[in-house]
Amino acid sequence: MQELLQHLANALLLGSTYALLGIGLTLIFGIMRVVNFTHGELYSFGAYAVFFLEAALGVNFFVAIVVAVIAGCLLGALIEFALLRPIQGADIDTTMLVMIGAWIFMQNSELLYWGGVAKSIKTPFPEAPLQLGLISVSWLRIFVLVVGSVLIVATYFFIDHTKLGKAIRATFQDHDTAALMGINIKGIYTATFALGSGLAAAAGALLGPVFLVTPTMGDIASLKAFAIVILGGLGNITGATIGGFILAFVEELGAGYVSSGYRDAMGFVIIIVILLFKPTGLFTRADRIG
Amino acid sequence: MRKLAGLLASAAILAAGAVTGANAQETIKIGVNEPLTGAFAASGNYVTNGAKIAADEINAKGGLLGKKIQLVIEDNKSNPTEAATVGEKLMVRDKVPVMLGAWGSSLTLAVMPKMMEYKVPMLVETSSSGKITKAGNPYIFRISPPSAIEAEAFGKIIDKLHIKKADFLVINNDWGLGTAQDFGAMFKKHGIKVGLVERMGESDQDMSAQLAKFKASDADTLMVTTAVDQLTLIFKQAAALGLKKNFITTGGSQNPDQLIAQAGAAVNDTKHLVFFVPWVPEATPDPAASKRFIAEWKKRGYNFAGLTESFRGYDGIRAIAAAIEKAGKADPEAIRKAFWQVDITGLNGRIKFNKEGPAGKESGQSVPTVYLIEIENGKVVIPKI
Amino acid sequence: MKRALPIFWLLVLFTLPVWLRDPYFLHITIITAIFIIAAMSLNLLLGYTGQLSLGHVAFFGIGAYASALTSLGFDIELPGGLHIVHAPWPAIAGFPVGIVVAGLCGYMIGKLSFKVRGAYFVIVTISFAEVMRLVALNWVDLTQGPLALNNIPPYSIWLPGIGEYEIWSKVVFFYVVAAVGVACYLIIQRLVQSRIGRAMVALKDNESLAISVGIDVTRYLVLAAVMSAAMAGAAGSLYAHYVKIIDPEIFLFIYTVTMVIMVITGGKGTLAGPIVGGVIFGFLPVVVRSYVAPAVQWMIYGALMIVIVFLLPRGIVPAIEQYFLNRKQADRPPDVAVLADLDAPKS
Predict the structure, then answer these.
(1) Residues in chain B closer than 8 A to A216 (CB atoms)
(2) Is residue B162 located within the same domain as residue B259?
(3) Is A104 in contact with C298 (Cβ distance < 8 A)?
(4) C28 CB contacts (<8 Å, ≥6 apart)?
């Protein structure tokens, strides 16, 4: 019983960052129809940014996270502007190849700059855990859960209640009509990509201190994000949120009771099963975003 | 179209020339096959830096046989196939007469068939799997302790630790699985029960699921075998789970100071089997050499924590240099034979190879020193037992 | 000229070991040739049917593992008490086994490509390769997991007068790879120039039109997937018995990317494309490596990939064909022009 509760607590804490990753990718995927291979690199960028700010510049841990997320947004906007805008309207294969090229470039520039040795981020939280009855959770992970949840809610608010959010929703529903209504589609694309990238960087900035920061950490994050998006349905933010938590629970319980070696396999098994039997995702509401 | 064909052909010839040409300076090359990226990057870089210090030291004294030694360093990316590939590259393209490598047991085992094929000896500095010296590969000379020797050394003091039952958490490769087997056998001999044996992938970062299992187990001790990066995560995650056990790590790739720096209070009261004690250089077999090495390491601005690994590269290159000197020429077969006459005192102790494995094609194994250290209040101490 | 060209290239190919005396360069050539075979097989799916299969390395790896395990033997316990023991077979038997097993997996993926399309297909294929990697990593009884399958025997052939001959020699192995490569090339050539090939191209360009004129979509796509996977499996078998060690990282996405880069830069949907791309990206690392760190080398790859998609979206071979076409300024037979047009990016 104690073991099960502990597994469930672990999964809950991990789920919020998975949800962030998933929401970021589902926005980009849903609105721009771009299979974004750089998503994982934005994730590792967020983690490295926190490490750099804190270790090299001595910036406060919490400030470093905020700066990392903003930097992630800017980097995302830059990628969209430099690489995707010039080939707007090209088929999905072409954009995918460009994104693969960008992914390889980014990952190896990280490897070149930081080296292959994993980095560890210091946090101001105590090592001793919070004891909640039978289970214990670290303060750092509670912080991750809280910030992750706040960001998820903030994203909802942004999409539902701001002008830019409405424009993004309109573009998702119908590009052409939205353009006719005077929405600047190019601007929407850049904004969406920046937002999605910022969320990926946030996930990296939050999980980096929990684990270790390595140049290849983004690869598995990318693939997990794809799994979450497919689980939740294309462009479906609620789906991605729930999908993120589902993936975390499946992974943790799989690792605990089946085999720890197959932890990372769970996401892919989900992808294959969902696509074979319910290709639109578990939460079929692909007609609108939000 | 024909023009194009000609162009391509001449480009190919040009490329071939670029590859075959050059490399005519008078140096003695030593191949270094280490994980500089990937899961074991931290350790591989430490070992390589230690090797560089030894090489510079030898060259500063005039080199070997009147020639400078040159390290040809290749990254095996912590991957067995890559280790075999770069090993082949070192032997075939760079024509090194001897190599140092390849850190992990699975990495070393991957290079071994290639050594048989090209008949080049390799000094093994870190790998611990018993399979390496028992495979009948006469080109293998190992200075690191195989897990059986490590377990045996630990066995001498084990009774004083009053362990009743131990669980194992090991890395899922030759190193970890071999350690679980050899230490498990030693424990049983001493009347200690062996409980759970859980594995983790080489690049796994979340071990909470395994740790949650240990929390529910009734064993008093958890034996952990993996390298420093994963150990850091394990200690942090164990602390987060409130897992209170007697932790003992094996393998000598813990870099205790790095654990203290990165996992903080989570590593207090944990014990570690290491093969070099830079905290008390006067207690090492060759205090003068240890102090010199530690000073040079600090002078180069490397992390103090790396010393418990970098000495392997240092000892390795010095043993190789001794063999080359004895051989009198930079020839693989002569060096292989000369390894049997090597008898020097390294930072870890005497390096002299004993025969192991099937008769007629024995590998060399020296018997290194094993130390048990403890971390108390963020400081490394030698426990009084 | 038209006749002489293939003979010229064949001559170049088969005399290569004579003027490549350096064994390391020969080694690189063999590895490159094996990847070119894999890239040619990917081109069949990517270039001719338009299916962006980004899990292609799965077939390569499955071929390698199937072939290696056939020659090494295994002893596994399946759930339900089923005990399977396979005694080692001669290494050469691994080659057809690798092809067949990879082909069967290709059949599955071919069927799948009907249920899921576009971006979804891409993600399913990537996931398939990743699942294969994790299975290879964790099914230790069968694959040795991260311990790697080591000491894979070389191919051995029975020669009259000599008896059992084990191929340890790089030169001999080069000829084996070259022969397999030429065979694959000819098979692909026959296939795409036949009715089947035209049907595939029609499918890629306009599926609904193709269906309306009676092209059996399922049959052709599955056929292409099976052929493609089988050839990748053959390349995997060659790789396993040449390198003589394989581990789960053979399934890494980066190898698929290597193949994709070869196909795209060379020119997808052209016969020579994967070869040109393969030669460039097979040898470039060796040349570049002497000057820059591996990370920089990959950065160059990434940047080059973007630049090529931007500047030469159809790849090098179609661009060169176009260049010669323009220079002649003659009215060539229309079929050539049409063929070139097929590769234009759909907007």
Answers:
(1) 38
(2) yes
(3) yes
(4) C282, C283, C286
- Over residues A93-122, mean pLDDT: 88
Q: CA C282, CA C258: separation in Å to the nearest integer?
A: 9
The answer to whether residues B59 and B77 belong to one domain is yes
User: Does B205 share its domain with B131?
Assistant: no
pLDDT of residue C2: 59
Range of the domain at A80: 2-114+131-277
Report the pLDDT value the prediction gives residue A128, as an integer from 0 to 100.
80
First to last CA, chain C: 37
Average pLDDT of the residues in C165-188 = 90
Whole-angstrom distance, CA of residue A269 vs CA of residue C124: 10
Q: Based on the number of CB atoms within 10 Å of its own CB, is B248 exposed (0-12), middle (13-18) or buried (19 or more)?
A: buried
Range of lowest pLDDT (B68-77, B116-125, C193-202, C264-273): C193-202
What are A39-72's pLDDT values in tens digits?
A: 999 999 999 999 999 988 999 999 999 999 999 9
pLDDT per position as a tens digit, B33-67: 999 988 888 899 999 999 999 999 999 999 899 89
Rounded Cα gap, residues C44 and C112, in angstroms:
17
Query: Among residues C248, C223, C255, which one has the least CA distance to residue C38?
Result: C255
C-beta neighbour count of C22 within 10 angstroms: 16
Tell whether B237 and B376 lie within a shared domain.
yes
- CATH code at A203? 1.10.3470
Q: Find tokens 């400081």 and name the residue.
A: B379
Per-residue model confidence (pLDDT) at position C105: 93
State yes or no: pLDDT of A84 exceeds 60: yes
| DSSP string over C139-197 | -HHHH-GGG-B--PPPPEEEETTTEEEE---HHHHHHHHHHHHHHHHHHHHHHHHSHHH
Mutate to test the interface with C, among A28, A81, A97 (most CBs of C within 10 A): A97
Task: Report residue B337's pLDDT band, with 50, 70 and 90 as the boundaries.
Answer: very high
pLDDT, mean of residues C50-71: 92
Residue A173 CA to residue A290 CA, distance in Å, equals 11
Identity (one letter) of the amino acid at B59? Answer: N
Question: Domain containing B74: what range?
Answer: 27-146+287-365
Cβ–Cβ of B110/C8 closer than 8 Å? no
Write down the domain spans for chain C. Answer: 4-252
Name the CA dihedral angle for C235, C241, C242, C246, rounded to a multiple of 10 degrees: 90
The structural domain count of chain B equals 2
A97: chain C residues, CB-CB within 8 Å: 260, 264, 305, 309
β-sheet bridge partners, residue A139: none
The alpha-carbon gap from B226 to the nearest alpha carbon of chain A, in Å, equals 15
Q: Is B189 left (phi over 0), alpha (psi -120 to 50) or beta?
A: alpha
Say whether pLDDT at B153 is over 50. yes
Mean pLDDT of A194-203: 95
- pLDDT above 60: residue A284: no
Note the pLDDT of residue B3. Answer: 45
Across the interface, which of A83, A219, A275 has its CB nearest the CB of C306?
A: A83
Contact C37, C180 (CB under 8 A): yes
**What is the tally of structural domains in chain A?**
1
Q: Which residue has the tokens 């790095």?
A: B258
Is B175 inside a domain boundary?
Answer: yes
Using alpha carbons, list the distances in angstroms from residue A47 to A53, A120, A140, A205.
Answer: 10, 10, 15, 4
pLDDT of the residue at B25: 55
- Domain-embedded: residue A169: yes
Closest by Cβ to C24, choosing from B89, B109, B110: B89
Does B8 map to a domain? no
pTM of the predicted protein model: 0.84
